[in-house]
Amino acid sequence: MLETLNPPQRLLMGPGPIDADPRVLRAMSTPLIGQYDPAMTGFMNTTMARYREVFQTTNQWTLLIDGTSRAGIESVLISALRPGDKVLVPIMGRFGHLLAEIATRAKAEVSTIEVEWGEVFQPEQIEEAIKKVKPKMLAMVQGDTSTTMNQPLEHIGEICKKYGVFFYSDATASIVGNEFKTDDWGLDAVSVGLQKCLGGPSGSAPITLSDEFVDWIRKRKKVEAGIRTEQHQDGVEPFIRSNYFDLPMILDYWGEERLNHHTEATTMLYGASECARIVINEGVDNCIARHRLHGAAMVEGLKALGLKLFGNQTFKMNNVVAVYIPEEVSGDLVRGQMLEDFGIEIGTSFGPLHGKVWRIGTMGYNARKSAVLQTLSCLDACLSANGYRGPKGEAAAAAIQFYKSN
Ligand SMILES: Cc1ncc(COP(=O)(O)O)c(C=O)c1O
After folding, report:
1. Are residues 160 and 28 part of one domain?
2. Which residues form the pocket of ligand 1, taking CB atoms under 6 Å from any ligand atom?
3. Is 340 found in the same domain as 291?
4. Is residue 13, in this structure, part of any structural domain at all?
5. CA-CA distance, 173 to 166, in Å (whole number)?
6. What is the pLDDT of residue 10?
């Protein structure tokens, strides 16, 4: 007899993925329906409307890309950038490198600027680089979980408008845990994922696109043979070098034409739609405030443990914190014990921070008091058990005190 899949119970307190909200999992176990069932196309329209609220936009073209967050990134970059088009990518962590990597594979001419991990860019640095590079697009991450920094974006849109540059942001890790205003901040394209503050599983990438951006990518339109009709006209610009991520075809699937591009991942759509419904019912601003509260409680507890925080705290994301691993303990042994003995996962790190910091998230369904207190008590116990010489037994009490006064 083959065994049924029976994953262990975990509390996922790393930088994402996190435990999906049970309501999202329930929505994902509801029956499948046909791709063009009016109920299904109705759900697609409802999902578009819900994500307009999440993204704080009136953009008609607000929809899901099937795939993990990088599917959203890739769809935007490969649809917008012709080979040789210039793109500017400010890099403040691992995911800036990812944007540059994807743009390079799209054969764009990629220029990067960098700040040290743990810092963010000032608008003047971006403007300076835009003047120099004259890119078609600026592509930058808002919340980069690799460093826990949240790049302020509110003044970048004006700069992009001034120089006629498309403004794209990957807000996968920050959306609904930190302020994000697509229209007010002048964004042309935004992509996210479910597995952070939206409280869902990885596997669907909501995106939103401005009308100007859609006008541009439609110039690269090419409808595939087999579904192409006499009405379909090729765009005047070189066609998009990916079929799966061809946004003009995907838009026509989500739009009135219902072009038969791919088979929508129905179960993921149910999940994505439920994630948005939960956030909207809570209120986007309340959801951000909840992430701020529980993120701050976690920080209080970590400080009471005598742990040093990584990065410029003025710009820390609400939903994740990085702390230096004390010299006298093994980071891997502590994390291992947390997982094996308590079923709690916290995160390790990449690149220059590898082996130096742990990353602890409070996001989505896990941005709640019980998850914060369990994690702090567990870390406290595991540090003690692994020879930590700093303060003991005070982490949860400090967080409880913080909750009392906030
Ligand atoms: C800011 C950011 N962008 C992109 C990604 C990549 O997401 P995925 O692994 O879902 O493709 C992540 C994942 O952690 C992320 O934090």
Report:
1. yes
2. 16, 68-70, 95, 141, 144-145, 170, 172-173, 193, 202
3. yes
4. no
5. 21
6. 98
Q: Return d(Cα 98, Cα 116) in angstroms, integer.
A: 16
pLDDT above 70 as % of the chain: 100
d(CA 73, CA 388): 41
Ligand 1 atom 7 nearest Cα: 69
- Range of 275's domain? 21-280
Q: Last residue of some domain: 219, 245, 280?
A: 280
**Predicted pLDDT of residue 262:** 95
- 20-34, 85-99, 189-203, 222-236: lowest mean pLDDT where? 222-236
Residue nearest to atom 2 of ligand 1 (CA): 172
